[in-house]
Amino acid sequence: MEVKIKAFNGLSLNELYDILALRNEVFIVEQNCVYQDIDSKDQKALHVLLYEGSSLAAYARLFDKGIAYDTAAIGRVIVAPAYRNRALGDLLVDEAIKAIETHYKTISITISAQAHLQRFYGKHEFVTVSEEYLEDDIPHVKMKRN
């Protein structure tokens, strides 16, 4: 598994296409959720890409404090359907946390997690700090890691 951490301007056209295609496949088509995925925040993010060969297996985007929340943030966490049940989600979140600590020099991180994933993020020391709310008609909770 090859891990890449890149700013928006460092992404190749193929990498950007892979990211947008994967997000579209899962967040819009698989989850049957029509929403505006391209939100003008990608340009402000660091992008974590996990490749197996030429295939994008997992992805997340990271923000410094003050962009999405008053802390650093992880968002758009996704594992491609063909790569699920291989603990890539754990690897992806671990790499995202390390990248935030390295690039943003902080350990305080906020995520808006799909509610059913609270136990998964809990393994990575995130704790739920909000009541459940709907984001794009999907139940979510705010979680923090300090």
From TrEMBL:
The EC class name is transferase
Gene3D superfamilies given in the database record? 3.40.630.30
Q: Which CDD domains match?
A: NAT_SF (cd04301)
One MF term in the entry's GO annotations: acyltransferase activity
Q: Where is the N-acetyltransferase domain?
A: 3-146
- Which key words tag this protein in UniProt? Acyltransferase, Transferase
Query: Can you name this protein?
Result: GNAT family N-acetyltransferase
Top-down, what is the taxonomic lineage of the species of origin? Bacteria, Pseudomonadati, Bacteroidota, Flavobacteriia, Flavobacteriales
